[in-house]
Amino acid sequence: MRFQKFILILAILFGLSIYVGCSSSKKVQKKILNLSIASRSAWNADNPRLYKTHVPVRITVHHEGTQLLLTDDAAKKIKRIQTWGMGKDRNWTDIPYHFLIAPDGTIYEGRNVHTVGETATEYDPSGHLLITCLGNFEKQEVFPEQLSSLIRLIAYCSIKYSIPVETLSTHRDNSAQTTCPGKNLYHYFENGYVLAEVIKLLK
Ligand SMILES: [Zn+2]
User: Fold this and answer.
1) Residue 13 Cα to ligand 1 middle (Å)
2) What are the domain boundaries of the chain?
3) Which of 92, 99, 138, 161 could crosslink 85 through cysteines, CB 3.0-4.6 Å?
4) Under a CB-based contact definition with an 8 Å cutoff, are residues 163 and 120 in contact?
């Protein structure tokens, strides 16, 4: 009888621990999904042209490639990227990236996540969710707010679109034709910092 009671108490404790574990991980997910993202209207986006759809299964990080400072108008810069990309030079259907992060850490919505992004290099961006940090990190350092937003955005995309964080890579990992996202940002991928911080957030 005593033994049965003991087993019963053990079973209750086990059930409780699973319940507490689940509800705390749900809380973590809710907090991550609460991320503030500025909509396309924040940068006065033009309507896209007809898209090629896809399901994003991996996360790929870029830099935009032109130097940008905290004092520069990031929204105007994003609009200029769209205008150039949809113009005669590239003839893309929209801005190439799914998300863009300004030097001050503001996250902007780019093209629809369920559409294939664009690249000027040889790799096929089908299945890649493209995040870019505004700036040129061959020449400038990453702003701390920008790096912190990048980590939170990767965690957000991983939960929201069910993409395993192990798929995280950068443009240069997929293409031999580029140093994107620049050595000063790539450094944080090479030493495992970004992935470790994302995993910490998801725990
Ligand atoms: Zn790139």
Assistant:
1) 50
2) 1-34, 40-202
3) 92
4) no
Confidence tier at 21 by pLDDT (50, 70, 90): low
Q: pLDDT by residue (tens digit) across 54-66?
A: 999 999 999 999 9
Rounded distance from Cα 9 to ligand 1 centre (Å): 56
Q: Phi and psi for 64 in degrees, rounded to 5? A: -75, -35
185 CA distance to ligand 1 centroid (A)?
Answer: 12
Percent of the chain residues topping a pLDDT of 70: 88
Name the fold adopted by 40-202: Lysozyme-like (3.40.80)
How many angstroms separate the alpha carbon of residue 181 from the centre of ligand 1?
A: 6
Whether the Cβ atoms of residue 99 and residue 153 lie closer than 8 Å to each other: yes
* Amino acid 120: pLDDT: 86
Q: In a 3-state reduction of DSSP, which class is residue 60?
A: strand
User: E strands along 36-155, which residues?
Assistant: 58-63, 99-101, 107-109, 128-133
134 CA distance to ligand 1 middle (Å)? 11
Q: Which residue has the tokens 């896209």?
A: 48
> Token pair for residue 198?
């994302």
For residues 181 and 62, the answer to whether their CB atoms sit within 8 Å is yes
What's the first-to-final CA gap in the chain, in angstroms?
Answer: 40
159 alpha carbon, distance to own chain's centre: 11
CA 64 to ligand 1 center in whole angstroms:
7
